[in-house]
Amino acid sequence: MPEAPLAADADRATVTAAIEAFEQSWESSGHLLGVEHRTVTDRTATDRWVLRFKGSEKDVIAIWLTLGQRTLVAEAEVMPSPDESATAIYALMLARNASLLGTAYAIGAEQGLYLVARVPAATVDVDELDALCGAIVAELDEVYPTVMSLGFPAHFRRRPQR
After folding, report:
1. In what order do the strands lie in the sheet with 32-39?
2. What are the pLDDT digits (tens) for 103-161?
3. Would you give the DSSP letter of residue 109?
4. Residue 26: inside a domain, yes or no?
5. Cα(85)–Cα(78) distance, rounded to whole angstroms?
6. Phi then psi for 71, rounded to 5 degrees?
7. Residue 19: which domain range?
8. What is this structure's pTM?
9. Does the residue 46 lie in any domain?
10. Collapsing DSSP states into helix, strand and coil, what is residue 54?
């Protein structure tokens, strides 16, 4: 990644405090499995966090938060590069992009599928994180069985309804 100017101290403090408060607010829910923080030293970003949520279709949904110069980027892997039906899967995700608010599907470097979002760092608070993470978890849980059964039909079977 190219070197980037680091986030301002005020934005870094705002985002860090919001993530800590978000973690505390979800502590007893059983849905947030953990939060890890890493300071970035290669000047591509300031900080990275990974938030792990319990999913209903996907066991664990990991959301990476990366603080750049002025934005907080959220990304979650939906699936690795599909073995089959890649064109149909990518077309489905592009169609779904039209109805998403604040998030979008993207293809990663290894042709994997990701759900991503960008928000201004200065606006990040507990409510913003709750809405952002909630949207990602809900969308991923909804689409995961469909794309996995299309992309890996020999290996993936949808869970029986409980």
Report:
1. 32-39, 47-54, 60-67, 71-79, 113-120, 104-107
2. 999 999 899 999 999 999 999 999 999 999 999 999 999 999 999 999 999 887 665 66
3. T
4. yes
5. 15
6. -130, 155
7. 9-151
8. 0.90
9. yes
10. strand
